[in-house]
Amino acid sequence: MVADFLKRCPPFNVLPETEFQWLIGRLEITYFRQGHVFSDDEDQGGLRILRSGAVEIRDASGKLLDRLGEGENFNIAGLCKSRPDTRAVLIEDSLIYFLKQPDYQTLREKSREFDRFFHSQRDRRLRRAVRYEASPHQLMTPLATLMSKDVLMIPCDESVQKSAQMMTERRVSSALVMDQGRLCGIITDRDFRSRVLAQGVTGTDR
After folding, report:
1. Is 45 helix (H, G, I), strand (E, B) or coil?
2. Cis omega (within 30 of 0) on the bond before 11?
3. How many domains is the chain built from?
C-alpha cells in the first residue's frame, strides 16, 4: 500500500529497488490535525511526505511560499537554510509518512538522482512562490487544541455507509482507519465526494 503510493511520487520513483525497499522499512506513519505547525524550533528534522491532506509553506512574515498536496514532500530543516523561521502549516487533517533526518541523508548519498531532485526543489519553490500573495493575517491554533485526543477511529473493514454515519454523528470531517490497532489510512469528506459517490460505490462496500 505504502510502496504502491510512493512508486507514483517523485523522487521515490527513481530510486533503485534496493534503496526503495530500504526506504519503505524506515518510514513512520503519522497523523496531524488541521492547523498543526512544523517549525525548525520544534521539528526533529526529516522528510515528510503527504499521503493525504495539504500544507502551506510560509516564511517568517507569514508570506505564502508554496502549497503542497498529496504525494508532495517537505523538509523544514532544508527550507530554513535558505529562509530562516520558515514554517509548514497544515490546512487539512493530514496523514504523513515520515523519514528521519539520518535516513533521509543516507538516501541522498546513495542515489544521485534522488539527491538532484532536492537540490533543484529550492529553485522550483522560489518560482512557485511568486504566484502567491502575502496573507495579511495568519491565524495560529494553540498547540493544546491541535493535539486533541478526540479523534474518530474506524476499523478498516467498516462499511462506507457506517463510516459516513459515524463521522456525521461526531461532526468531524475526517477519521483514522485502523487495522487491529495499527494506523493504515485516513478517510475524509473529500474521499466520500470524489472517490465514493463519483465512482458509484454503494453504502455496503468497504
Report:
1. coil
2. yes
3. 2
The torsion of the CA quartet 138, 53, 27, 112, rounded to 10 degrees, works out to: -80
With the CA atoms of 95, 54, 112 and 105 taken in that order, what torsion angle do they form, in degrees rounded to the nearest 10? -60
Q: Are residues 114 and 164 in the same domain?
A: no
> Whole-prediction pTM value?
0.67
pLDDT value at 8 more than 70: yes
Strands, E assignment, the chain: 28-32, 37-39, 46-52, 55-58, 64-68, 73-74, 87-90, 94-100, 153-155, 174-179, 182-188
- 14 shares a domain with 110: yes
Q: What is the gyration radius of the CA atoms in the chain, in angstroms? A: 18
CA angle 131, 136, 141 (to 5 degrees): 105
In a domain, 136, yes or no: no
How far is Cα 27 from Cα 184, in angstroms, rounded to an integer?
Answer: 13
Q: Which of 191, 20, 183 is nearest to 110 (CA)?
A: 20
pLDDT in tens, 123-156: 555 555 445 444 444 334 343 443 345 678 899 8
**Residue-range definition of the domain harbouring residue 170:** 149-197
Torsion angles phi and psi, residue 49, rounded to 5: -115, 125
- CATH assignment of the domain containing 180: 3.10.580.10
What's the CA gap between 151 and 107, in Å, rounded? 34
